[in-house]
Design goal:
Layout: H1 3-11, E1 13-18, E2 21-26, E3 46-49, H2 61-77, E4 82-88, E5 97-104, H3 108-117, E6 122-127, E7 130-135, E8 146-148, E9 152-154
Antiparallel strand pairs: 1-2, 1-4, 2-9, 3-5, 3-6, 4-5, 6-7, 7-8
Length: 155
């Protein structure tokens, strides 16, 4: 995977819903020695999935919105708890924002399958307090190749 693209993915800020309000995080933090010190959500398994802009091809908003709704419907039919999330770049002049779904307690292999079906370059998967950036597009890299990150809580 291109190193600039990888850095961009790792530094993406995600807004995730919690009982205490929005939690802003990225995958470019320092190594956490004790995951129990992380916010509760980050200690549980979940996936962050989107259907927007497959293979980084910009699609019209209405097409992206329709794809994203289909993804949500399939996740709900799979009996997953799904909540709105968003990812965006951390640069002052950045305009990129992409809606996503926070999918609680999803199996890692199933999350990868959803990423492949919706032609995403990568997905985010969290287990044991550690985020993983998992490649789901074989044209980008080996499918399933994982880049382990560390949570960075943003204020």
């Amino acid at each position: 995977m291109d190193q600039n693209l990888l850095r961009s993915y790792l530094s993406t800020i995600y807004e995730l819903p919690t009982n205490a309000g929005l939690l802003r995080v990225s995958l470019d933090g320092d190594i956490a020695t004790d995951p129990s010190m992380l916010p509760e959500l980050l200690q549980r398994p979940f996936a962050i999935l989107t259907a927007y802009n497959p293979r980084s091809m910009l699609l019209p908003k209405r097409v992206n919105d329709a794809r994203h709704q289909v993804l949500r419907d399939l996740l709900i039919l799979g009996v997953y708890r799904v909540e709105h999330a968003v990812g965006y770049e951390d640069e002052p002049e950045g305009v990129w924002r992409e809606p996503a779904w926070l999918v609680h307690s999803m199996d890692r292999d199933e999350a990868i399958s959803f990423g492949r079906v919706f032609r995403q370059n990568t997905i985010v998967y969290c287990r044991n307090g550690r985020p993983e950036l998992v490649v789901t597009d074989p044209t980008c890299d080996d499918t399933g190749r994982t880049f382990v990150g560390n949570w960075r809580v943003r204020t």
